[in-house]
Write a structure and sequence with these properties.
Layout: H1 2-33, H2 36-45, H3 62-76, H4 82-96, H5 100-116, H6 120-152, H7 161-173
Helix pairs in contact: 2-5, 3-4, 3-5, 3-6, 4-5, 4-6, 5-6, 6-7
């Protein structure tokens, strides 16, 4: 009987060790899949990835959430032009108080987060919920200012149905109206 208990304990230790090794391997694999510019931007902005957590759920700065959400909103209207992307960068810089370099890196991480969410539609939903939990009152004004600038950068074109749905999601999560 004591030998059986020893074998059972050794089996449990081996199981725990294997789980930890797999988790470390998964994180390393995920980071190695990320392009170099995403890794550099994440290091510069202090974005840290946590094990067993979706990348959006690790956002701690409202400016990063605003930038990523605005990038997803822009992509809902179709592939953005260089002019629209530049307008988005200026808007994020202006309304979040970041430097131009930080705003560009925020959008680099934002595009990576959108990819991790499997596209702009699920990203809008997940980012909006995270941003509302993070800073409901302080981030709503800057977010809406950036989204307004994104809508204006379309050059008078009407918002797409997906962008209108995204605004509805923002209003619902921030409990507006």
């Amino acid at each position: 009987m004591p030998a059986f208990l020893v074998l059972l304990a050794l089996g449990a230790i081996a199981f725990v060790w294997m789980k930890r090794t797999r988790a470390a391997r998964d994180i390393t694999h995920e980071l190695s899949d990320a392009p170099h510019d995403v890794i550099a931007a994440a290091k510069r902005l202090g974005f840290r990835r946590r094990a067993n957590t979706h990348p959006v759920d690790t956002i701690e700065e409202p400016a990063l959430g605003i930038g990523a959400l605005a990038q997803a909103f822009l992509e809902l209207g179709g592939p953005p032009s260089a002019r629209q992307q530049a307008a988005l960068t200026r808007s994020v810089q202006t309304h979040t108080g970041q430097s131009l370099a930080d705003a560009e890196e925020t959008l680099i991480i934002g595009r990576w987060l959108i990819g991790r969410c499997n596209g702009p539609e699920p990203a809008v939903e997940r980012l909006t919920r995270k941003l509302a939990r993070l800073d409901r009152t302080g981030s709503f004004g800057p977010l809406m200012a950036v989204l307004d600038d994104v809508a204006r950068s379309a050059g008078g074109a009407r918002l797409s149905d997906k962008q209108i749905d995204a605004l509805t999601e923002v209003a619902r999560c921030f409990k507006v109206g």
